[in-house]
Amino acid sequence: MKSFKWPKHSILAIAIIATWLKTVIVYHTSFELDIENAMQELILFINPLSFILFAYGISLFFKTTKVRNRFLITVSMILAIVLYANVGFYRFYNDFITFAVLFQTSNFGDLGNSVVDIISFTDILYFTDVIVLILAIKFIPKVEGLSPVRIELRRAYFILSMAMVFLNLGLAETERPELLTRAFDRELLVKNIGTYNYHLYDIYVQSKSSAQRALADGSELVEVDNYVQANQAAVNEEMFGKYKGRNLILVQLESLQSFVINNEMNGEVVTPFLNSLTNNKDTYYFNDFYHQTGLGKTSDSEFIVENSLFGLGRGAVFFTHGGNTYNTMAEKLGENGYFTNVMHSNNSSFWNRNEIYESFNINRFYDVESYDVTDENSVNWGLKDIPFMEQSVDLMTEMQQPFYSKMITLTNHYPFTLEEEDIMIPEYNSNSGTLNRYFQTVRYLDESIKVLFDELKESGLYDNSIIVMYGDHYGISENHNKAMAMYLGKEEITAYDSALLQSVPLFIHVPGSGDGEVIEDASGQIDLRPTLLHLLGIETSNDMQLGADLFSKEHEDFVIFRDGRFVTNDLVYAGEVCYDRESGEDIGIEACQPYIDRSLVELEYSDEIINGDLLRFYDEETGNLLHDALDGEE
Ligand code: GP9
Ligand code: MN
């Protein structure tokens, strides 16, 4: 019998294939990743390779077979431990490990004795690849002439691994645009770039922010504090505490922009219910209100409203600074006897909500697990808004009052698809399917708000609540400018138009108040925290916040966007041009300059607070800087 001749680099090939296959099997057996199509399946299948090829490939640089093999065993062992640690963590938390969590031992508090319950003897299978590799090294005869590895071979090998990385990232980008810059969800990251790359990425993000945090000593706060104090808008005594003790129901309306309000699409009314609120005796309607979000989209909008600070210019603050100290609207309400909660039918780890809500001191998160979600009552991203409203009000009836519930809707989300039975108006007829369908999902969202109001009335909660509703961010991006121009009857959408299109509606509905009015001053999401706390009779004069009470006589019509654009009642600054708001004409930069300067300062202060985690040096009760901070000062 002619003996089988093992190819030269069999050991390396076996190591790669064993770890690759094991990882793919673990993906499928140990995590609940929901895979929606063949493309996602393919990405999941190839993503371990892009990292493994690199890691094992380093062995090619070692001179002797012995050292090479030792290196391979060590790497496979480390990778197996990393993967297994994630499996264990996932069994308990239904989530992947983050670098930050590893160093926050308090997170493992619950884990304690349960480690024994989590692991089992059969878990040895997670190390199958290491065992296979060791056996291969032991039993496969040594091949002569392997050392040192030819330089051309090494080159070819690393070109191949680079190609794998690009293939992986390219496919991931088509499946999930802006995956890395937006960095929203650990599950999405793992699904797209794989566990191992995910950890590298996480380490990079976390170490960058911890370095900034470590360098901060709080002395930076002195200047920020002076600015905040000097720019405070005095409370309006008539409005302060006017609706004290009411429940606060905040509804963050997914992707809802102002251009659909009181507007028609081919003769169809798009938002009949919201339109009726724009001139309702119990509703303050703000028709020149803007979102101020960046890449963090929904999560930025939550962040801005809770903290009255901006999100970050890069990435999503929910993800990068989930462990910071904050002084949120929820925390203040909690201190004033409110039961605070968020209602949103999605995985709790999406946007890292589960982590940051703890930092926000939110009492409870009603995530997808709290809802009855079936194939029939879901579409697109999950539970449809109408059943979401119905089930949420059911949950509210069980809550201790007063409560603060933040509801986050989902159906009016890109790609704006609906079930046939939920379509109430026809599609629009532009060249953009996205815009065409948008009107239909907005119409559905509007209907769900009507349902919310009806349900609240029926449950008896309505009269003792305030219902605040606002759009979280734009729904129609600039990629659809041509279609938007057609809809708005304009020749083209300019930078000036785009800025004004960032307007989202804001309604503050106070049942039975008879106080309704339309407020036309320019304002933004950053103003909501002080406004709402003041209406409920809660002071904010010591708070590190950049927004101003919308009812204050000193509220200024000046809305800063995260990217440095701004809007006032008279000016629009966009694309580095200063426009007269009324005429849309370029009026020269001088008119805008003072505002440009101020917007840079405010954005910078906000970033400093977040990057340095400065609120840990601040006593929110007294408004004093804590000792550490003062040590740095003379
Ligand atoms: C997901 C939802 C959508 O839970 O809030 O986030 P978005 O993509 O709009 O930022
Ligand atoms: Mn959103």
UniProtKB/TrEMBL annotation:
<feature type="active site">
    <location>
        <position position="298"/>
    </location>
</feature>
<keyword id="KW-0479">Metal-binding</keyword>
<dbReference type="InterPro" id="IPR050448">
    <property type="entry name" value="OpgB/LTA_synthase_biosynth"/>
</dbReference>
<feature type="transmembrane region" description="Helical">
    <location>
        <begin position="12"/>
        <end position="30"/>
    </location>
</feature>
<feature type="binding site">
    <location>
        <position position="472"/>
    </location>
    <ligand>
        <name>Mn(2+)</name>
    </ligand>
</feature>
<dbReference type="InterPro" id="IPR017850">
    <property type="entry name" value="Alkaline_phosphatase_core_sf"/>
</dbReference>
<dbReference type="InterPro" id="IPR012160">
    <property type="entry name" value="LtaS-like"/>
</dbReference>
<dbReference type="Pfam" id="PF00884">
    <property type="entry name" value="Sulfatase"/>
</dbReference>
<feature type="binding site">
    <location>
        <position position="413"/>
    </location>
    <ligand>
        <name>substrate</name>
    </ligand>
</feature>
<feature type="domain" description="Sulfatase N-terminal">
    <location>
        <begin position="246"/>
        <end position="538"/>
    </location>
</feature>
<feature type="binding site">
    <location>
        <position position="298"/>
    </location>
    <ligand>
        <name>Mn(2+)</name>
    </ligand>
</feature>
<keyword id="KW-1133">Transmembrane helix</keyword>
<feature type="transmembrane region" description="Helical">
    <location>
        <begin position="42"/>
        <end position="62"/>
    </location>
</feature>
<protein>
    <recommendedName>
        <fullName>Sulfatase N-terminal domain-containing protein</fullName>
    </recommendedName>
</protein>
<dbReference type="GO" id="GO:0046872">
    <property type="term" value="F:metal ion binding"/>
</dbReference>
<dbReference type="InterPro" id="IPR000917">
    <property type="entry name" value="Sulfatase_N"/>
</dbReference>
<feature type="binding site">
    <location>
        <position position="473"/>
    </location>
    <ligand>
        <name>Mn(2+)</name>
    </ligand>
</feature>
<dbReference type="GO" id="GO:0005886">
    <property type="term" value="C:plasma membrane"/>
</dbReference>
<keyword id="KW-0472">Membrane</keyword>
<keyword id="KW-0464">Manganese</keyword>
<feature type="transmembrane region" description="Helical">
    <location>
        <begin position="124"/>
        <end position="141"/>
    </location>
</feature>
<comment type="similarity">
    <text>Belongs to the LTA synthase family.</text>
</comment>
<feature type="binding site">
    <location>
        <position position="254"/>
    </location>
    <ligand>
        <name>Mn(2+)</name>
    </ligand>
</feature>
<keyword id="KW-1003">Cell membrane</keyword>
<feature type="transmembrane region" description="Helical">
    <location>
        <begin position="153"/>
        <end position="172"/>
    </location>
</feature>
<keyword id="KW-0812">Transmembrane</keyword>
<feature type="transmembrane region" description="Helical">
    <location>
        <begin position="71"/>
        <end position="93"/>
    </location>
</feature>
